[in-house]
Design brief:
By secondary structure, the protein is mainly alpha-helical. The chain has two domains: 6-63; 77-161, no CATH class. The protein is built from six helices and no strands. It has helices at residues 6-26, 41-63, 77-95, 106-119, 127-148, 158-161. Helix 1 (6-26) packs antiparallel against helix 2, helix 3 packs antiparallel against helix 4 (106-119) and helix 4 packs antiparallel against helix 5. This is Tripartite tricarboxylate transporter TctB family protein. The chain crosses the membrane at residues 9-29, 41-63, 75-94, 100-121, 130-149. Keywords: Membrane, Transmembrane, Transmembrane helix. Residues 10-153 form the DUF1468 domain.
Length: 162
């Protein structure tokens, strides 16, 4: 059988592998039932649905004809690097690295840096728009996580909040 859409086939394969991995990993926890869900119930359900969706997408990629075979393009290195770097920096800024002498700078600084670095992944970067977005995301995160959910985490750098 010939692959008629490479993009769909490999996207479906990725969904199938990730969903299957989550579903298999869920069996390490108590599953429970619909009335009394255990910690493995939701990952099993979502992983199973994702795996089924992946199988359907893979099947369609083998059956439905496309014009040019929908080939996979080149790797987008710039977005890949900047998105991973943004998340890495967020984790470091949120918790700090005491062994390297990097203090925890809190959620607000972490979200602002995350937004600024991740914005470089796109085709264009407009500093004013990104700063406005970063402030809105930081404020929204504060409202949701600190006020709404009452999570106990460092919001500001220690030299500001002390």
């Amino acid at each position: 059988m010939r692959i008629k859409s490479q993009k769909d086939f490999f996207a479906g394969l990725l969904y199938l592998l990730v969903g299957g991995g989550f579903a298999i990993g869920a069996f390490n926890y108590t599953i429970g039932d619909s009335a009394r869900m255990g910690p493995g119930y939701f990952p099993l359900l979502v992983g199973g649905l994702l795996a089924i969706l992946g199988a359907i997408i893979m099947f369609r990629a083998l059956v439905v004809e496309t014009i040019d075979g929908d080939p996979i393009g080149k790797w987008a290195w710039k977005p890949l690097i900047f998105i991973i770097l943004a998340n890495f920096l967020f984790g470091i800024l949120l918790g700090g690295v005491p062994s390297l002498g990097i203090p925890a700078l809190g959620v607000m600084v972490g979200i602002i840096v995350l937004t600024l670095v991740a914005a470089y992944a796109g085709p264009e970067f407009k500093l004013k728009e990104v700063i406005v977005l970063a402030i809105i995301l930081a404020a929204g995160s504060y409202v949701v996580f600190i006020w709404g959910l009452n999570l106990q985490m460092q919001v500001w750098p220690s030299f500001i909040s002390d």
